[in-house]
Structure formats: C-alpha cells, structure tokens
User: Fold this.
Amino acid sequence: MTTLPPHAERTRQQSDLWSSKARTWSRWARPLEAMATRFNEILTEAAGVTPGARVLDLAGGAGEPAMTLARKVGDDGFVVSTDLVPAMLPTIRARGEEAGLGQVLTVAAADMEHLPFAPASFDAVVSRFGVMFAPHTQAVADGIRRVLRPGGRTALMIWTTREASTMLEVLGTAVEAELGMEPAHPDALGPFRFGSCTRLPDALTRAGLTGVTAETHVFSPRPRLADDFWRPQLDMSWGHRLDARPEARPAIETRIRTAFAALADAEGRVPLRAEMRVVSGIAPV
Assistant:
C-alpha cells in the first residue's frame, strides 16, 4: 500500500521541487505580468483590498499577485509576500524595487502552515494558485484565521480541473504522451487538488471564517498561434521534467503546436478557456 511521507518530508519535497523552478519563474515573470494582472484583479476585489490595507500574500512565487496588491494598497499600506522557497524571494523584491514599490512590498520566507506573524496582523490574506501545494489544508486555514484582523478577508484562487483549461490540458497531454504520467498519490499536492471538491471552503469554515463562498471565473483569451504563447506555461509547469529529459522536448513541442493548430481559427488565433475558482471568507468580528 502506498503511504504519504511524513509532513516534514512532504514539505521538503515541495521546497526542492519549487526551488528547481525558481530560475524559470523569474525568467518569465515580467513577460507574463499583463496576463497575470487580470487574474490578480479578481483576487484583489474578492479580498476587499483597498488603499492603506495590510495584506499577506501566501506562496508568492515570482511576484504575482504581490505587484498588483502593492499598487492597490499604495504608500499608506503594505504587502508581505511569502514563499516556502527562499530562492523565489529575490525576484519579488527586485520587481518591487524596479516598480518603485520597495517601501510597500516586502518579502519573507514562510511555510503557510506555520505563519510567523502575530494574531490580527493583516486586513487581507490572499494566495493565487498556491494553497493546493500545502500538505495540511486545515493548518493553512487556521493560520489565515489567526493572522486576520476581525472583519478581515481572505481570497484564495485555485484551478478547477485540467480539462476545464485548454492550455493546461494540451500541454499536460503532450508531456505525458512523451514522458508518461508523473507518479502521484490520490491526495497528491498537484495544481488541481481542490478543483472538484469542497475541501478548501470546508477548511475555512471549520477555522471559523464566515460567509465562505466559492466563485468560478472563466477567461477566454485568443492568442496568436504564431507567437508560441504556450512556452512560458510549459516551462513553468513542466520544465523540471523537460530538464531531466531534454531529448524529448522537440517531440513535445511538435505535439503542442499540432494540437493548437487544430484549434486555431481563420485569423490564426487560438480560442482558449481558463477556469479558476476563488474561495473567500471573512474573519468574525
């Protein structure tokens, strides 16, 4: 029978995996900023972020949604962007300084299951595509509740299912056709872990948050086929597998181009669908 490794080992595995991705995420952070902002605005609104707010960003990656949040809160607020992987933090810090947000946006290495912040420290806690990678969901929810001030809000963005997002489905299918499926436990810490269940909103409710909701959002971009628009997502999500098998990359990229060409319209644009869910709640007053 397959068993999950102990918590400390699972956390280490996650840290090692994301450390290996840090350079790739840094490389693509700026080119993807415009697209990321569209997602971030939904998250910012759901969390009730306003000028002057104190905001905690969990699993900050290469700086999204922290950049959008920092611009929103302005000079009278602040954003603390955290990540389990210290190698991610220099990119967030550099982007903030380049944008003139260095006094508003700070970074900290932190495990979202063990937040090193005082109770009621923040007006809002957000995470974009990050909470599904923490082994213990309830510990995350309890920590969010603890650091939120009374009346503060949390908003957590997750993917629904791979099939509901064209890009992820096409890329994943191409990678698996050449490299096979990644070994996974049924409760594996993957990007679609919460997509078809109520585990995350249930955890927030058990933590004592009120008004918990789960709202689905759909984006429908139409990128140009000729632009290889899929390359950043391929490298950021599957680059660690391609780095281990570089000889497979040409065949994978051929499969991807063929699949998207079959979807392209007469104008050479590819209609995509990206489905995500925002789970939010309020700390009781």
Notes: The first strand starts at residue 54 and ends at 58.
